Amino acid sequence: MTEPTTLPIRLLIADDHPVFRDGLASLLDPLPGIDVVARASDGAEAVALVDEHRPDVVIMDVQMPVMNGIDATRAVVAAHPEVGVLVLTMGEDDGTVLSALRAGARGYLRKGAEQDEIVRAVSTVHGGGVVFGASLAARIAEVLAPAGRPERPFPELTERETEVLDLIAAGRSNGQIAQELFLSPKTIRNNITSILAKLQATDRADVIIRARDAGLGQG
C-alpha cells in the first residue's frame, strides 16, 4: 500500500533587504517539506503575491517601505484567513509582536534565528499553532482572550486612544507614538485631540497626570 504524499509547505518571504530575503530563501527552499513560492520586497508586494501564489505561510518583516508588515499582515489575513503569518522582529519587542497579533499574525520569528527554529516555527503556524517566546506568554494571553481582561481605565476612549494615552503617559512624543503604533503623525494628533475632548482635559500635562494616576504609562 502506497503512503500518501505530504505536500510541501508553500512559503512566501517578505523583507526589504535583499541579502536577508534571498539568504533566507536559499536556506529554506532546498529543505524537504518547504517550497519558497515567492519573495516580496515591501508589504504591498507581499499582499499582491499572496493573492497570486496562495502560500500556506508568510514570513513578514515589520519595517518595510510602501506598506509596513503590520498593515500587510492585516490585509493578508482579511483576504486569506487560511494563510499563516509569522512576523520578523529584531528581538522580543512587546509592542511590535502585540500589534502583529492584533493584525492577525500567528506569532513571530527573531531575525538571526537558527535554521531549525525557523523550520519549527513555519511548521507550527502551518499546523494552526502559534509561535511566541515565554516572556510574552502572559501579555499575549490577554490579547487572545479579551473577555478575561479587566476593564481598562477611561472606558469612554477607544482601544486605540487608550494605547495612545498610555504612550503619552510614558513620556513619548507624538513622533515616537506614531512610529511605535505604525500610524501617521496626523492620526496621532487627531487621537490626542479626541482624548483631550473626551476627558475634558485642559492640556497634555493634565492628561499625563490623570493617566498616570490611573496606572497608565508604566510599561
UniProtKB/TrEMBL annotation:
Keywords: DNA-binding, Phosphoprotein
SUPFAM superfamilies assigned: C-terminal effector domain of the bipartite response regulators, CheY-like
Domain HTH luxR-type: 150-215
InterPro entries reported for this sequence: CheY-like_superfamily, NreC/VraR/RcsB-like_REC, Sig_transdc_resp-reg_C-effctor, Sig_transdc_resp-reg_receiver, Tscrpt_reg_LuxR_C, WalR-like
Membrane-spanning ranges: none
Superkingdom of this protein's organism: Bacteria
Matches recorded under Pfam families: GerE, Response_reg
Entry keyword annotation includes Nucleus: no
Protein name: Response regulator transcription factor
Residue span(s) of domain Response regulatory: 10-126
CDD domains from the UniProt entry: LuxR_C_like, REC_NarL-like
Positions where 4-aspartylphosphate occurs in the chain: D61
Organism: Nocardioides cavernae
